[in-house]
Amino acid sequence: MSRTLATGDHVAGHALAMAGEANRDARGCCAGAYPITPQTEIIEYLSAYDFTKGRIVLVESEHSAMAVCMGAALAGGRSFTASSSNGMAYMTENIFSAGYYRLPTVMIAVNRTLGPPWNIWVDQGDSLMMRDAAWLQFYCDTHQDLFDTIMMSFRVAEDPRVMLPVIVAMDGFVTSHTQMVVDFPTQEQVDAYLPACVVPHHLKHDHPTTMGGMTFPNETELHRFEIQQSMENVITVLEEARDEFENVFERRPAGVMECYETDDAETILIACNTMAKTLKNVVRERREKGEKVGMIRTKLFRPFPRKELLQAIGQSSKVGVLDRNHSPGSGGIFWQEVATTLQGGPDVLLQDYLVGLGGGDVTPENINAIIDDLQRRETASEPQWKDTTK
Q: CB within 8 A of 261, min separation 6: which ones?
């Protein structure tokens, strides 16, 4: 184990490289790669890595990058890539295909605002637009959380009870280009944690098959039902992956979510990624003043952990959701999921707050104003747009 000061992009690149190298005694690894700010440094890191049995294939577009990953996985290899913003949008067709093919690719999404107008700063609209694809989605708040989540993602994705691809998201620039101290394991530890990648339906020379052929309605319905069953297995498999992670690396990463001061909280705020770090500090300060405020950091977005969230909310009477994303005509995307979760549940005042869109700063002042607004509310309203410049 080595302790290193590294940027988020460096952490992601190193994690992907170590996971790929861990498959060297099986069918190796492969990544389709195309640059886009702010994820380019991940591709640069991977391109310079000396794999024992692996290739980084530089292509002409994001669409082709995912096609390379699909081909690699269908050949039985461990596959991965990274993208952002409009690059992910261009990749959409093959993102859906990879999920429906049941290929355990891991993709790092360095969250960046979709354009036009063009904006290179953080907004989660790019990864969240894939919420209906057959992919798992994780959201990371720190560089260490990013590394650990990437490792667990390969283990969960490649488990035969899941066999689905994974998006691991981090905030563009706020995480990708800042530095934090990270504990990197040895390659031997990663080898011990990640078993050989086995894609049961990979193509075989001695038994040619057709992938993705024409199906009839009942076959498609069964296909989607099987994907849903796999999604329902994710939390169980993730908990097993956390247990083994602790055994190998001697630390236990966050699971589906992280709760802080929720046991007796009357007011709870829900956030993800780096916003959650700021929120946690604010909650700590208000707790010191005697206020019963708590927070939930959502980490697993797909499948959405409804049972776990209901348990975490408990008897709280007011819940606010901080959304760094926007679904036009509706509101925040995490808020929509929380609202669905609360249907038929406890009587909770649920309010959505749209903050930090397009990379605006989410400061303690913003969060304190949101808590004040939530605490004095008697009824919920339409999603509230908060001025993140103050």
A: 283, 284, 287, 293, 294, 295
Domain that includes residue 83, residue range: 2-249
With residue 286 as reference, give the H or E element that holds it: helix 273-288
Q: What phi, psi does 208 have (nearest 5°)?
A: -60, 140
| Residues in CB range of 290: below 8 A, 6 or more apart | none
> CB count, 10 Å around CB of 181?
11
Q: Check residue 141 and report its DSSP letter.
A: S
Cβ pair 312, 181 in contact under 8 A: no
DSSP character string of 294-344: EEEEE-EEES--HHHHHHHHTT-SEEEEEES--BTTTB-HHHHHHHHHHTT
pLDDT tens for residues 273-294?
A: 999 999 999 999 999 999 999 9
Per-residue pLDDT reduced to its tens digit, 340-374: 999 977 789 999 999 999 999 999 999 999 999 99
Supply the pLDDT for residue 387.
Answer: 66
Residues of the chain with pLDDT under 70: 387-390
pLDDT of residue 389: 43
Burial class (CB in 10 A: 0-12, 13-18, 19+), 49: middle
Residues 28 and 135 in one domain: yes
Minimal CA–CA distance to 108: which of 43, 49, 159? 43
Q: Are residues 238 and 333 in the same domain?
A: no
Give the model confidence (pLDDT) of 208-242 as tens digits.
988 888 999 999 999 999 999 999 999 999 999 99
Residue 277, Ramachandran bin (φ over 0: left; ψ between -120 and 50: alpha; else beta) = alpha
Same domain, 262 and 122: no
**Is 369 within a domain?**
yes
Residue in the structure block whose two tokens are 């702010």: 38
Q: Provide the pLDDT for residue 190.
A: 98
On whether residue 266 sits in a domain, the answer given is yes
What secondary structure, in 3-state letters, does 26-68 show? CCCEEEEECCCCCCHHHHHHHHHCCCCCEEEEECCCHHHHHHH
- 117-147: b or e for each residue (b if 16 or more CB lie within 10 Å)? eebbbbbbbbbbbbbebbbbbbbbbbbbbbb
Q: Cα separation of 206 and 136, whole Å?
A: 32
- The whole-angstrom separation of Cα 239 and Cα 232 is 13
The CA–CA distances, whole Å, from 198 to 4, 25, 387 equal 32, 12, 49
